[in-house]
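Thread: "does anyone have the structure for this chain?"

Original post by V.I.:
We have the sequence but no experimental structure in hand. Need at least a predicted one for the grant figures.
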Amino acid sequence: MQKLYESEEYISNLRLFTESFETRFVEMATVDADRSVRVATIALLDTIRQRDLMEPDAVDKVSLMIFDPESRIRKAVVNLFLSNVEATYEETLESIGGNVETVEAELGNDKETADGIPYTWLKYNSLVKVLAKYDRQVEELEQAEKPEEGNKLPLKGFEFGDVESRIAMASTAIVGEMEELHVLPETRIDLTSRTGII
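Reply from O.Q.:
Generated one for you, tokens below.
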């Protein structure tokens, strides 16, 4: 399947197939008992997303796996998750000036210019917004599943066990893949303390 979606030759023919089986792919990615199946299906769905064949709701459902206790799952889903961060970032810049490249050039990447707001700070802001959105969704799903136990149980489909901080756990996968977070150790952004949602 992966090879088919990677080939330009078959994309137009795969559109209807994808619409029919997207729900099943999402189920395999989120709740299959075999972790290897989940990892492979997440990779397939990321390819489908890159082909603009994946519905936004499906992207959200799979992106929630950034909070999965299994590191292999978090690593597999991080690029799909970051596509949401990039989309939020582009929406923010477009609301400021209508063109991403123009706003980035105007703001620059120096905190001493453009009123002290470099464009990378807006990327951090987008990351926090997306993390906060998904964290709220997990809270709501947990409370709907077991309202009498509050929010102590992880989202259905995750491994069961105590999870001290979903954000801290997600950040282990995000930091390695988000270029703007590749900073010197003394200035590294602490996602767990700056989100304000832990």
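V.I.: this helps a lot. The chain has a mean pLDDT of 81.
O.Q.: and The radius of gyration is 18 Å.
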